[in-house]
Design brief:
This protein has about 450 residues and is an all-alpha fold. The chain contains 23 helices and two strands. It has helices at about 1-15, 40-45, 50-55, 60-75, 80-105, 105-115, 115-150, 155-165, 165-175, 175-200, 205-210, 215-220, 220-235, 240-245, 260-295, 305-310, 315, 325-355, 360-385, 390, 395-415, 420-425, 430-455, and strands spanning about 30-35, 250. A two-stranded parallel ribbon has the order 1-2. It is globular and about 65 Å long.
């Protein structure tokens, strides 16, 4: 009798009926077909795609300055921090995908369902602030890239990034696979640009490999510790956890069959891990580039424009300095900003629909999400007359918002995926739950420390 009840409960969780409410990203939910009884590689190809959208959040323009500065200041030592951050990202994103696949709901929907009206609205405001904070880095990166590549005034570049949300509307009509392909192409551009520049910089591979080994200097050196906290704290993006729980549902598998659900979890996790490995490689390349070209030069690399001009200055980077290197950097910056824009807009829709059940036309909803994000950047740009240095100061503020919002996404994620009543047999294993809670506590502590440091409260 107990066994029968367990099976019934599991089936109930697998069904996870969403008839009572709109499905997450309803227009693309279950829109991608997957083969039945196919081989490993054919099945993996069908599930490949969402991981690319997730990965761009881990290598968006907001991470670039930190990674390159880490290499320029401490050479290869902080590569171990990038490795650790990537492993944490893989764990959390796998949990996020599992939540969406098993329950048929995204993290925003479940959080709203299981909280009161007032607390639900409060959580929405915090999460919406995180979306704005994430978009700020993407808008600034894209706007500056357009300025560097085409000579547009920065304000014009920012306005163009506000309009590029219309591109997403066109892409959605073409199908979700087209979006996945475009984002994957942009990620490939970023990867190959920095791989090319790192090869030209001729890093010492022995020192690079040694950098992935843990070092006591990371915790004993105050400056190194602070930069390490910045890398870890800025790596896990709250919006990616919401996004992952939604786009994992784009595949049309049999939700009533536990083997089909198990297969979806398996291949979605493989896709996520493979794409996050690419993000790990890109972040490593950024740090290696900073170390190989700028270590010991005492260059000011605090802004995108500084990096752009430094790559063309032979007094800083030596004989390989070239306008081509600078242009490739700006091209990669534009690709990063645009790919992050697509995923950020999708995450904004997920959060609006999940938390406040906003009912409005999709084009209006996406445009509203974008306008909310672009307004503070545009206001800064107008007030400071397009001064890049002043506008990039917004990046620091955006990281504070992300740090505040992170626990409000992580804690529910770990709770939900560890809940057997909600997840049935697909709940986290005990060791995964323990590791997830440890990681969550560590990240919260690191982010609190970062906030206090940013506000000048700690020494």
């Amino acid at each position: 009798m107990a066994n029968h009840q367990t099976k019934s409960t599991t089936k109930h969780h697998l069904l996870a009926s969403t008839d009572q409410q709109q499905k997450s990203l309803d227009e693309v939910n279950s829109s991608v077909s997957v083969p039945k009884n196919a081989g490993f590689w054919r099945t993996l190809m069908a599930y490949t795609g969402p991981g690319a959208l997730i990965a761009v959040g881990y290598m968006d323009p907001g991470n670039w300055i930190t990674s390159i500065s880490g290499g320029a200041t401490y050479r290869y030592t902080l590569l171990t921090v990038i490795l650790m951050s990537s492993l944490i990202a893989m764990l959390l994103q796998a949990m996020s995908a599992r939540l969406g696949i098993v329950t048929g709901k995204d993290l925003a929907q479940l959080t709203r369902e299981r909280t009161g009206k007032v607390s639900g609205i409060l959580l929405w405001i915090i999460t919406e602030a995180a979306i704005v904070a994430t978009d700020i880095a993407e808008i600034i990166g894209s706007g500056i890239a357009l300025e560097l590549l085409f000579g547009f005034p920065l304000i014009v570049g920012i306005l163009i990034t506000a309009a590029d949300v219309l591109l997403l509307l066109v892409l959605m009509r073409l199908g979700f696979r087209k979006i996945e392909a475009i984002v994957a192409t942009l990620v490939a551009v970023i990867l190959f640009v920095f791989l090319y520049e790192v090869i030209l910089s001729q890093p010492q591979m022995g020192a690079v490999l040694k950098g992935y080994l843990p070092s006591s200097h990371v915790v004993t050196n105050h400056g190194m510790l602070y930069l390490s906290l910045g890398i870890v704290g800025a790596t896990v993006m709250p919006h990616d956890l919401y996004l992952g729980s939604s786009i994992s549902q784009t595949r049309n598998f049999d939700r009533e069959d536990r083997r089909s659900v198990a297969q979806a979890i398996r291949f979605t996790t493989i896709d996520s891990n493979l794409q996050l490995t690419v993000a790990f490689v890109v972040n490593s390349l950024l740090l290696i580039l900073g170390a190989a070209l700028f270590y010991g030069t005492n260059s000011d690399l605090g802004r995108f424009v500084d990096l752009y001009y430094a790559l063309g200055n032979n007094q800083i980077v030596g004989a390989i300095a070239s306008p081509i290197l600078s242009m490739l950097f700006a091209l990669a910056l534009l690709a990063s900003g645009q790919s992050s824009t697509i995923t950020g807009t999708l995450a904004g829709q997920i959060i609006m629909e999940g938390f406040i059940k906003l009912k409005m036309p999709l084009w209006a909803q996406r445009l509203l999400t974008r306008l909310i994000s672009v307004t503070p950047v545009l206001a800064f740009a107008i007030y400071y007359h397009g001064n890049e240095a002043k506008i990039e100061n917004l990046l620091t503020l955006s990281q504070v918002f992300l740090s505040i919002a992170l626990p409000f996404a992580m804690v529910p994620l770990v709770r939900f995926t560890s809940n057997r009543q909600l997840m049935g047999e697909f709940a986290n294993r005990s060791w995964v739950t323990y590791v997830a809670w440890i990681v969550t506590v560590i990240l919260i502590v690191l982010n609190v420390y970062l906030i206090l440091n940013t506000l000048g409260i700690t020494g």
